[in-house]
Protein: DUF2264 domain-containing protein
Organism: Photobacterium profundum
Amino acid sequence: MQKDISTKPRPTIPYEHPDAAMYLKLCKENLIRLRNKKPAYSMHDETIRQVFDSDVGNVSYDLQEQCDQLVRYIAEAFEHYAVWDYTHAYYPGRPSQQTARTDAMEGVSRVIPTLAAWLHANGQVTTVINGLNNKAIDVAGLLRTAFLAGTDPEHKGYWGQLHDYDQRICESADLALALWLSKEWVWQIFSLAERKQVATWFKQVNTCQTVDNNWHLFPLTVQLVIKDLTGEDTIAHDKYARVKEFYVGDGWFRDGARGNYDYYNAWGFFYSLYWLDQINPDFDPEFIRHSLTTFVDKFRYFFTPEGLPFFGRSVCYRLAASAPLLAAIDVKASSLSVGEAKRAFRTSLEYFISQGALEHGAPTQGVFSDDARLVDNYSGPASSFWSLRALNIALFSGQRSGLWQTEESLLEVEKGDFSFEIPAIEASVIGTFKTKEVVVIFHSDYILQQSPLTRRLEPQSWSDRVLERLVGRAERPKNNLLRKGVTCYTSKMFHFF
């Protein structure tokens, strides 16, 4: 029996129902994007693929070296795409439902946590990273410039005034995390006036309404960072209480009262909860660590050397699936060994990246290469940088958790067959040693009216492609297979090919 969660009316969100004024704004921002965008940067796409493909190339890399090469690849491309003092970055790719400017803000907010995590790990030695082209990039200076420009109302790159249900509320959490990770080299260097300016922009989240799902974690992240940096406590404990209402047991959250059980548990809920616990270890360690332990003790079985039994939305975040495993070994909240977490993280990166999951300096909008069928309408060109969330935890904690030094150990499916239930989400998990395949089967449907045709991945129509290109707004079919009635998912991932 699934837990009954009290529901709240879903608000009308302007970008989901654009009027004439919104379309005019979309067209205007699309023209600005066309004027400011730069050519796709593909100089080191093949290089980074070979770093993660053990069957190609003459050089063998250990995991830490692979991660370092990946950050260099990301930093170099970011330097290429960034505009207006690193406040926005126009990456190539399919647009979201937001404006092109919001998409470009994601090109910063979802990249600089990785740069800040790298700085946190390396800043005592150097604040300069060399791109794969060996061009030096001063990460600390870049971050200081971005935060001061983005929070300055008089600057061209100002991140703007936030409003209810604004996508920038989501982005503010990543920006705040980057500020916290880099505080020794950024915040502590700012003058009092500069600190006030930066904090004032972030504190806008305190008065903004959010969608009633994992979004409650975004203002909480900002508020915990502001409290850590300034001492000002505006933490919305009611939002945190609502997040805990979504917890259904067995380590799983439902993404809203009527939402999915999916991989947002990995790269959404537990990623954010891990950082809340790092920013303030006294916030709610008992619940956060217990739920993380419970989740990871079963979720670890999902990982194979070649693929995941993926289900739910935002498949373009697939590289971040191992984030809770890395969080668990850092806080020592699970019986999971460091070696097993390391193998899950490394093989996940290698499987996807060696098959083309990085292109033009960014994770692609698909499983491997770009695939319009798999890009949700809320996702833009840089949204897929959430794929780096496991990398962010690895960079931040890898040295102290033993991730870099420990030898790998086998994944569960490499040890033998297994079969078990996850009662809270009404699912069965089956692993087959001989084929190294893991299958997840749900015992109930999200939808009653369905047919073989409605369960397929629907392609984007020709007319929608044209409209999307002209207006700069996503016009793609909804292809969340859970919502189409698919109940069986395999690590062979053939549903997405």
